Amino acid sequence: MDETTPTADWTGFALSVDDWGSGFVARFTFTPEESVSGGWTATLAVNASVGNIWNAEIVSHDNGVLVIRNKGYNANLSAGQSVEVGFQGAGSSNGLALISTNLPTGHEDPVDDDPMVPTVSISDVTVNEGDGTATLAVTASEASTSGIAVDWQTAPGTAGADDYGIASGTATIPAGATQTTITVAITDDAAVEGTESFTVELSTANGATLADASGTATILDNDVEDPNDGGMGDHDMGDGGSFIGGGQTYYVGQTSVVTDFDPATDVLD
């Protein structure tokens, strides 16, 4: 394992990398010269996929530029109080560097605060089984100048794989807009199941952070019991019920015997 500590023209900033060829762990330490209140952001050059980040959250990662922001517990820092941000990368660590930050680190060209990053939420929806689809709205708190992309996938609840179309994808909110939709297929079957539900879960957000990442789709059943089956549906009629034959109804009890039934002309349904 190769451990390197690149130098950079930043006071109060340090970077260390543990590199094993196909991946690496990077650690950035920020030590502000003045107190910080209300949060901070940093922009880094990272030419690799990023996962398992700690002490920060990812705002965006496009074209080798990674933007991160504070977590709730380290939004406020005292002068001289260090915060370490680390993440695991897949690929090469070449080119790792700090591009900008709004932390007062003593750089000769301080960077102004970054603009507010939008948050994204997904709605709930209630549909009838016969509607064929369930559509959930994905809404941003404000429009983005570069657009927002959010990964999503369905997850089972009381509804199973036979009740809706298992799916995943990426929902895109275009630049200047604040909303898009996710549509999932609903299965209209003949089973009497009652009200069921599943969820649509948002995961990675590019250009935004996630505020409400889980939307519930509730399916109202449109099937009812057949009144001629004794309230037993397709179950065994051994404890009583009725059978409809060729033009007449045969009532069957636990010890009953069907009489006057002609198999050549009558049918039990």
TL;DR of this structure?
By secondary structure, the chain is mainly beta.
Describe this protein's structure.
The strands form 5 sheets. The chain has a 5-stranded antiparallel β-sheet, with no helix packed on it. A 5-stranded mixed β-sheet has the order 11-18-16-13-14, with no helix packed on it. The chain has strands at residues 2-4, 13-19, 23-30, 41-45, 49-54, 57-62, 65-69, 83-90, 97-101, 119-122, 125-128, 133-140, 148-156, 168-173, 179-185, 196-206, 209-212, 214-220, 241-244, 249-252. The chain is an all-beta fold. It has no helices and 20 strands. Mean pLDDT is 79; it is low at 1-9, 107-114, 230-240 and 242-246. It is elongated. 21% of the residues are buried. The protein starts with a strand and ends in a 17-residue tail after the last strand.
User: What's the number of helices?
Assistant: 0
How does the major sheet shape up? 5 strands, antiparallel
> Structural class, please?
mainly beta
Instruction: State mean pLDDT (0 to 100 scale).
Output: 79
Intertermini distance = 74 Å
Helix content: under 10%
Poorly predicted spans: 1-9, 107-114, 230-240, 242-246
In percent, how much strand structure appears in the residues? 35-45%
What is the overall shape?
elongated
Radius of gyration: 30 Å
